[in-house]
């Protein structure tokens, strides 16, 4: 029994002890907090510091015992000081984890790369700025021989990006990528099918941590757009945001109000959504929010699909990505699993850290 336990804990009985990498975590919300706990089981990784939008806390001991109240009373955060401190460690030994949704943090990556600090990010922002910015960032990581991992940008803990990269590296050619890449949207439409009002479901998704703090980031389709832009770019397609066709679920009159007013006003569209859902049901169909990359173009929006199809039977926060390639043409590859949730996303971030 003890031998089996050792294998489970250390992944493999044949692994050599690894040099300890130091991990700094920016953002200790749902994902960051869960990641801190998951890292406790990995002796080759040591959390040296954490921060939120205002405070930073450094750990001296081997054990990073994170308490939220300790961070609130920690010193104010200054990014130049944080980076200086990270540079003081041995070159190549530091992994910077971005578990924020902050553009300010994603703008730090180039400085981190130039100082040979690896980056693992759950944030999609750095990879979805201009094409030029994307290319510059990846070139920098290559030039300074640092690793840049962002598997959780698409599909949370699912191996979507790594599968595509491996196919391309082995000489395959991507023809089409399609499917549902938003756990939030799957949750939204499966709840609507069960008779829940649109406004109530959006609020619930936010409370459960499936939706972004401002649900408009999800309902606008921007989250799916960003994911498909990343998919396109790793396939070698050069694409800018304005070239993507996207259908928004945000009612026109609620586009520019503050978050509280937006959530209040959503009830006004409950009836029209219920009618749409009923109409589909009568035809044996359901609605799904899908994306498609084909011939260098991306389309994102609502699709009506048969209830008994693979997409139609999705529930909870499930994602389903279909990859059609030259090799996998008649029978495309399908990757399916939970596409949202703090546990699976943190585990995906951890898997990226362990690659380094």
**Fold-level CATH name of the largest domain:** Dihydrodipicolinate Reductase, domain 2
| Largest β-sheet summary | 6 strands, mixed
Give the strand tally: 12
* CATH class placement of the largest domain: Alpha Beta
Name of the CATH homologous superfamily of the largest domain: Dihydrodipicolinate Reductase, domain 2
**Distinct helical segment count:** 15
Mean pLDDT: 92
Question: Main sheet: which strands, in order across?
Answer: 3-2-1-4-5-6
Order of helices and strands: HEHEEHHEHHEHEHEHHHHEHHEEEEH
Integer-rounded radius of gyration = 21 Å
Please give the domain count.
2
- Low-confidence segments, given as residue ranges, are none
Percent of residues in helices: 25-40%
Q: Report strand %.
A: 15-25%
Structural class: alpha/beta
CATH architecture of the largest domain: 2-Layer Sandwich
Distance from first to last alpha carbon: 31 Å
Q: Which descriptor suits the 3D outline?
A: globular
General description of the model:
This protein is an alpha/beta fold and 356 residues long. It has 2 domains: 2-156 and 344-355, 3-Layer(aba) Sandwich (Rossmann fold), CATH 3.40.50; 160-339, Dihydrodipicolinate Reductase, domain 2 (2-Layer Sandwich), CATH 3.30.360. It is built from 15 helices and 12 strands. A hairpin with a 4-residue loop joins β2 and β3 (56-58). α2 (30-39) crosses α15 (342-355). The radius of gyration is 21 Å and the shape is globular.
């Amino acid at each position: 029994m003890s031998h089996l336990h050792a294998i489970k804990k250390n992944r493999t009985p044949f692994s050599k002890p690894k040099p300890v990498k130091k991990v700094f975590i920016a953002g200790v919300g749902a994902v960051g907090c869960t990641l801190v706990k998951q890292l406790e089981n990995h002796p080759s990784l040591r959390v040296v510091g954490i921060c939120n939008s205002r405070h930073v806390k450094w750990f001296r001991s081997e054990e990073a015992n994170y308490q939220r109240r300790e961070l609130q009373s920690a010193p104010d955060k200054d990014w130049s000081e944080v980076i200086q401190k990270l540079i003081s460690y041995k070159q190549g030994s530091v992994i910077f984890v971005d578990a924020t949704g902050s553009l300010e943090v994603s703008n730090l990556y180039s400085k981190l790369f130039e100082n040979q600090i690896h980056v693992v990010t759950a944030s999609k922002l750095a990879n979805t700025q201009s094409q030029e910015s994307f290319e510059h960032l990846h070139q920098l990581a290559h030039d300074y021989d640092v690793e840049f991992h962002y598997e959780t940008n698409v599909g949370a803990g699912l191996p979507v990006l790594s599968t595509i990269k491996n196919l391309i590296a082995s000489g395959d050619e991507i023809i089409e990528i399609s499917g549902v890449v938003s756990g939030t949207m799957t949750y939204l439409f499966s709840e609507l099918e069960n008779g829940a009002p649109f406004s109530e479901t959006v609020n619930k998704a936010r409370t459960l941590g499936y939706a972004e703090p401002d649900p408009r980031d999800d309902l606008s389709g921007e989250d799916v757009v960003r994911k498909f832009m990343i998919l396109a770019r790793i396939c070698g397609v050069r694409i800018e945001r304005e070239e993507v066709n996207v259908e928004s679920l945000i009612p026109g009159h609620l586009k520019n109000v503050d978050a509280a007013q937006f959530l209040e006003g959503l009830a006004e569209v409950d009836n029209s959504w219920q009618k749409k859902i009923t109409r589909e049901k009568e035809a044996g169909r359901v609605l799904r929010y899908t994306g498609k990359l084909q011939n260098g173009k991306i389309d994102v929006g609502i699709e009506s699909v048969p209830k008994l199809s693979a997409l139609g039977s999705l529930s909870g926060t499930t994602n389903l990505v279909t990859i059609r390639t030259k090799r996998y043409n008649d029978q495309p590859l399908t990757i399916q699993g939970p596409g949202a949730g703090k546990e699976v996303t943190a585990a995906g971030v951890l898997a990226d850290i362990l690659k380094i």
